[in-house]
Specification:
10-stranded mixed beta sheet, single chain, Rossmann fold, 11 helices, about 30% helix
Length: about 325
């Protein structure tokens, strides 16, 4: 949340130069406060685990938030009871008349499929198209980031030589960006993916800014300059044991996975994994919620359709929906 001070206080400019959010008393008087509405498109197989991870990070601000969970009706869910979906989730047809301040699109274990081969791809495109006029800011995670870039800008994904899995150091490329207020120069982020987005194609999209990179893992975080779209290629939401669970699952499936890098002490998978990304995860989600969503979204949610810019198209096989 911002620091509120008397207008024209000499310290204001110095604080702003240090990327501290300062709100003068005149602006504070005009600011309306209301419950924020978020929608989470949960594409992960262990939905209850992902729900807990996301909600834990969203809870670390004083903002009041209402969260709806959405499942893709065109996909048969195998790892979650239908009764859970019926009780706690909504379909797109149930929410498409609503307006949301923020949208989170999770990762999904479908990276090795072509986008168009994913059984809910048409539904995903429909959600992306709808978000242009019904959502203020969208946070895309892992496959959700790759899919969002492909849907909106035609950025292809590329297969990696082997699965990228582990905890990797990332640099803050633009410390002045509001998403990185309070960050150190470097932070750690879990990665778990078989593919990456085409970096050369991304650099050709003028309105996208690379905010974080990793020497080992490549692009880490990028965003549209107005923060309407944020792309996180890793999994800051992961718990301490998530990569360990995935590693053991892959071993049990006969995939012969490599040990996650920089994760188990002394590379011994019998030892409890270390966690060194929790503070960065909490701060990143809080910054997104505050600066990308709360500080920009209109007080009357229904005004979003007039408030949002329509400055990008996306396609399936090169054609607009």
């Amino acid at each position: 949340m911002p620091v509120k001070v008397i207008k024209n206080l000499p310290a204001i400019e110095e604080l702003r130069a240090d990327n501290i959010f300062v709100m003068d008393s005149e602006r504070a008087k005009k600011q309306n406060i209301r419950l924020l509405n978020l929608l989470v498109v949960n594409l992960m197989p262990r939905k209850l685990v992902t729900e807990t991870q996301i909600l834990r990070l969203l809870s670390n601000t004083p903002l009041q938030i209402n969260v709806d969970f959405l499942y893709t009706a065109t996909h048969e869910v195998k790892n979650t009871q239908q009764s859970h979906l019926d009780s706690f989730y909504k379909s797109f047809s149930q929410v498409k008349a609503n307006y949301y301040d923020g949208l989170i699109v999770t990762g999904a274990p479908v990276e090795q499929l072509e986008f168009e081969a994913v059984d809910y791809w048409a539904e995903f495109l429909e959600i992306m198209n709808w978000s242009k006029s019904h959502v203020y800011s969208t946070l895309h995670i892992c496959w959700g980031a790759q899919a969002g870039l492909y849907a909106r800008y035609g950025v292809e994904k590329e297969n990696l030589a082997q699965k990228l899995c582990g905890i990797f150091e990332s640099s803050v490329e633009n410390p002045k960006n509001p998403l990185f207020r309070g960050f150190d120069d470097y932070f750690y982020c879990p990665q778990s993916r078989y593919t990456c987005s085409d970096e050369q194609a991304i650099t050709k999209v003028a309105d996208l800014e690379v905010l974080s990179k990793s020497q080992e893992a490549g692009l880490s975080i990028l965003a549209k300059k107005n923060l309407r779209e944020v792309y996180l290629f890793g999994h800051l939401e992961y718990d301490r044991d998530t990569l360990a669970w995935e590693y053991q699952r892959d071993k049990a499936s006969g995939l012969q996975p490599e040990l996650p890098k920089h994760y188990f002490p002394e590379d011994d998978d019998r030892k409890p994994p270390k966690m060194n990304w929790a503070s960065a995860a909490s701060l990143f989600f809080s910054n997104w919620l505050n600066y990308a969503v709360y500080q920009g979204t209109p007080y009357v949610a229904e005004r979003l359709s007039k408030h949002l810019e329509e400055d990008y198209d996306f396609n399936e096989n090169g054609e607009e929906l």
